[in-house]
Amino acid sequence: MLLQPKPKNARSKRVMVNRDPKVVENSKTAIFVRGSTTSQVILNVLADLYSLRKPDAINFTKKNEIHPFDDETSIEFFARKNDSSLFAVGMHSKKRPHNLILGRTFNYQILDMVELGIERCTPMSEFKAEACAVGMKPLMVFNGEAFNQNENMIRLKSILLDFFRGETAEMVSLKGLEYVISVTTGPPGINGEPGQIFFRSYTTSLKKSGVRQPRVELEEMGPSLDMRIRRVRYPTDDMWKQSTRIPKELKVTKVKNITRDGLGDKYGRVHLGKQDINKIQTRKVKALKKHLDGGPNKRQKTDIEE
Amino acid sequence: MDVTGILDEHKSRFKSVQVDRLIPPEIDLGMLASFDINMINDAKLKANQNTRDTYLKELSREGAQLLINEIFSLPTTVDDDGIYASLPKATTVLPREKPVPKEKLLTRWEKFAKIKNIQKRKKSRMAFDEEQGEWRPRYGFKGINNDDQKPWLIEVPGNADPYADQYQARRQEKKERVEKNKRRQQRNAEEGVATEKGLKPQEMRKRELQKALVMSKGSTASLGKFDEKLKGEPKIKGLKRKFDPLVSTVDKEKSKNMDILNRVAKKESSATVLNVRKAQRAINNSKRKQK
């Protein structure tokens, strides 16, 4: 009735448990795969992206007959084998020269992917600037209106953000803001198709500015890519909905009657319950004394009503 | 006293951290990302490599500066390693890696304990073995529940057969207890699967049994047609044979006959001939898996 493989020892059990869905997820692992034919350009791109993505990255050094847009099975197999959810596949053909596919999987199934044609690439090795330390979180800068308007670009933005954001952190060291990834959209074509995309990465140096915030200076570290979107695979609505669900444990429960304004001040609304008017303490006036309602009074024996 | 001169001098020593933007960029501090929708100078991007790169660098610097300004204004905590800014939650929605974990199903005991409000208590791993006079683990290697840790001498109970093996009986007893526990685990798991599918456990078991029955029929050449019927065996649904009418249009008949002829005459490889029964089974299997 139950066909679940049982771990045979403690180590494999630990691995299996670690692969189970979690409420708070680990950072995503990316795999870098070569297609059956590759160019030097695409190899450079893959190597550089791999070095940016380290340590949560696995580099495939052998060629693989792989075409994610035509056949998903092999990339899904790799995802399952390596417990990864991001992939970069590089290939080169006459029809699609210097082809880079970036994508992600959800539950070991392809969620979405974007195919990019690399039109110019300057690898990291050609820049003088020293590359940043491994595993740093980059600052991401997206320039261009297209990132908010064009469907393909929105997808690309989302995938790039996912690819390079690194670990989710609550705190960030102010010294650790070591590099910037900047993506800019070029002018669109005559027919309105999205233009080139300029991918640049820089190391930062923070200079004194006389105020609390430092002045940032950048130096290009590479890779520097000029590319163009080719094919795009969108997620199905159902899958997207499932993948963006927030677990019950992480949902912020709505607190009744407490509001905050824009300045962060807290306002509370308090319910006092029903008030008994007879018992309210008001100004003490002789005329309002209780015995006047007809209650017994020892001192005054005259009846008021008469 | 006029200090503007001093201030200006102070300012002029440093480069500014101010960045002018027509529309302030949207900043997601949790993601350390900024999204700028201001107009980009297309002419500079279309120009030669050098101008383009310097323009992109300037654009990126300004974007990064805006981000850094925001990050440095966040509340900070100081640690031995340096100063840390605490980031707010990210506003950009990014997909998860795996689905939200399912809630763990309660076992029969857990359900009962919940109703009776029985709390789980932690037992120490070690227990005192009074016979040996030392501490031993409750279970596992050299555990006190192990057979070899129990007294080697067993008194024969008064009403028992004096020739019966009491050691054997003791071993048997433990074996049965273990078996019973295993059966309960299995039952809990089965009930869990059933409730996940929204079925009653009994119904689920019945279905599984029927499925197994159908499967077993495939093991005879007649596919169970001439098998002895079981008591109360249900009629199998979904197995229908369809016959073409004896007389149909000439075209259909011709193509049908030609198909047979071609297949025989050409001796096509077995791979190209579709085994309908096999294909049907494959489809059914995949459907079953999906369920």
Automatic annotation (TrEMBL), chain A:
The gene is RPF2. InterPro entries: Brix, Rpf2. SMART domains: Brix. One of its GO terms (molecular function) is rRNA binding. One of its GO terms (biological process) is maturation of LSU-rRNA from tricistronic rRNA transcript (SSU-rRNA, 5.8S rRNA, LSU-rRNA). Residues 28-238 form the Brix domain. This is Ribosome production factor 2 homolog. One of its GO terms (cellular component) is nucleolus. The keyword Nucleotide-binding does not apply. Pfam families: Brix. Belongs to the RPF2 family.
UniProtKB/TrEMBL annotation, chain B:
It comes from the Eukaryota. The keyword Transmembrane helix does not apply. The keyword Nucleus applies. GO terms for cellular component: nucleolus; preribosome, large subunit precursor. Coiled coil: none annotated. Pfam families: RRS1. InterPro entries: Ribosom_reg (IPR007023). Residues 169-204 are annotated as: Disordered. Keywords: Nucleus, Ribosome biogenesis. One of its GO terms (biological process) is endonucleolytic cleavage in ITS1 to separate SSU-rRNA from 5.8S rRNA and LSU-rRNA from tricistronic rRNA transcript (SSU-rRNA, 5.8S rRNA, LSU-rRNA). PANTHER family: RIBOSOME BIOGENESIS REGULATORY PROTEIN (PTHR17602), RIBOSOME BIOGENESIS REGULATORY PROTEIN HOMOLOG (PTHR17602:SF4). Belongs to the RRS1 family. This is Ribosome biogenesis regulatory protein.
